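In response to reviewer comment 3 from the previous cycle, which asked for concrete evidence that the modeling workflow produces usable outputs, we include below a single protein chain processed end to end. The sequence was submitted unchanged, and the resulting structure tokens are shown without manual editing.
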Amino acid sequence: MDKDGGSTSIQDHYLGKARKDRAWLTVILNSGKKIGGRIVSFDRYTVILEDRGSEQMVFKHAIATISAARSFTNTIDLNRAAAGTEGRGAAEPGSPAGKTAAGADGPPTGSTTSR
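The workflow returned the following structure tokens.
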């Protein structure tokens, strides 16, 4: 069972976007076989691909990789998704937790620099 609390997974978002954009995909199976087509539908266990009027159902456990022939607009906010899975939000840019060791946000206010 999924334990993500009902939120949309990155996989579901990617497959849904590919289906809506009717993007041409190449699916490489664990056996090494390549299948090309467009996603007609998918669920938790399967993906249905269509190519020239022919449909085939592929079980997700048999898929090694999926690649798009061209980039389609991907609206996944990975930073927000990562923060949501950790159960906490990202630190505010001005807070000490938002600072990096290299000082990417600039030197702290009131500090002196030596040359």
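The two ends are 59 Å apart (CA to CA). We consider this sufficient to address the reviewer's concern, and the full set will be provided in the supplementary archive.
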